[in-house]
Specification:
- The chain is an alpha/beta fold and 142 residues long.
- The protein has a single domain, classed as STAS domain (Transcription Regulator spoIIAA, 2-Layer Sandwich), CATH 3.30.750.24.
- Helix content is 32%, strand content 27%.
- It has four helices and seven strands; from the N terminus they run βββαββαβαβα.
- It has helices spanning 41-56, 86-98, 110-119, 131-136; strands spanning 4-8, 20-26, 30-39, 61-65, 78-80, 102-106, 126-128.
- Strands 1, 2, 3, 4, 5, 6 and 7 form a seven-stranded mixed sheet that branches.
- The longest helix is centred in the middle third of the chain and has 16 residues, at 41-56.
- The chain is globular.
- The protein starts with a strand and ends in a 6-residue tail after the last helix.
């Protein structure tokens, strides 16, 4: 994984927007990931592959910034119609924990904060108000 790495899913129509994922490595500290676009079934495999790469990078923290799962009409944000985007994050959190890493959501949108509550998975995520706070967060994985 390079210091900056990105993946793009194919845009098959005017809506939804292309899913774009980027990862920035901060050696010895974290991988900061950003997801922009729509998470649908079409993009799920690409997203899962990107998230698996992030875990393999072996950094102590995996920070996901500006996730907007479930919000249509947002520019340069992640959009999902259902829990399609949540499931890969849950699997990544589990994989990260098994690898001794900690997954942190940084400054998620109200929808991202709400989706885990609705699905009963809210207690498994660490949520911080900013990337800076996520990088400073201490504690055990998970």
């Amino acid at each position: 994984m390079s210091d900056r790495h990105g993946h793009h899913a194919k845009n098959t129509g005017a809506t939804p927007p292309v899913l774009r994922t980027t990862a920035r490595r901060i050696p010895g500290t974290a991988v900061v990931c950003r997801l922009d676009g729509e998470v649908g079934q079409d993009q799920k495999e690409m997203l899962e592959a990107h998230l698996a790469e992030v875990v393999k990078a072996g950094q102590p923290r995996l920070v996901f910034e500006r996730q907007h799962l479930g919000e249509r009409g947002q520019r340069a944000r992640v959009v999902a119609r259902d829990s399609t985007g949540l499931n890969p994050l849950l699997q990544t959190r589990k994989d990260a924990e098994a690898a001794g890493q900690r997954l942190v959501l940084a400054a998620p949108s109200p929808t991202v904060r709400c989706l885990p509550e609705i699905t009963g998975t809210d207690e498994v995520f660490t949520i911080c108000g900013s990337v800076r706070a996520a990088l400073a967060a201490t504690g055990s994985p998970g």
